[in-house]
Predict the structure.
Amino acid sequence: MIDLRGRRVVITGGGRGIGAASAVLFARAGADVVIGFRSRRAEADAVALECLSFGVRASAIAADLSQRGGADALCIAATAAMGAIDVMVANAGVWPTAPEPIATMTDARWHDTAAQNYEAMFQCARAAARSVTDGGRIVFVSSTAGQRGEAFHADYAAAKGAMISLTKSMAIELAPRQVTVNAVAPGWVDTDAIAPVVFGDEKSRIAANIPLGRLASAADIAGPILFLASPLARHITGEILNINGGSVLCG
């Protein structure tokens, strides 16, 4: 039902997890895809190759979004590859796996998380506002941590909370151009990002506290992202779409 043939999409952090699942789903829907990545070229190239199998254009482009100008360079390269950008999915980010109380959190920990989440988000947002075509779509990947906070991960929660506020601000700014700006807020997602600390009994414990009884897969997040980028969501903007199995019911 969702046909995105002719649409040109940039997905940051597209080499694995939610980004990779989203890239493949967009390609299946007929969209051309640029996969942004920072260091995992082999993974990003593999995702691009899978996207090509659906008969679309696809390529992987390196960009460090935490650095000033990184997102602009990605958008310039993506525009050169596809002709324009109709959809930006701002997915890149990190979740520091080691818990750290705010009372002992170091400046280095705070600034590193901010650089890879908050700063990267700003760079991506500004580049998208400049580059996405009129009538286009911007989708941020936030988190339940940005809605309810996350003890011992205050650095991450603060960055994701800022993303929610930015989504709402940009939605109003870009509405005159008919560009919609929305975010998804996943809960626990079963990807390799959490694998070092969430496995075995811990995964079962987390799943038991989710009303639907399981962690989301990357594909569970990719579907709603595709929806928000589609014509079906043309009158939705400034929205935070919760994808958490019922674990956070915040309206």
User: Anything to note?
Assistant: The first helix runs from residue 17 to 28. Strands lie at 8-11, 32-37, 58-62, 85-90, 132-141, 180-186, 240-243. The mean pLDDT is 92. The radius of gyration is 17 Å.
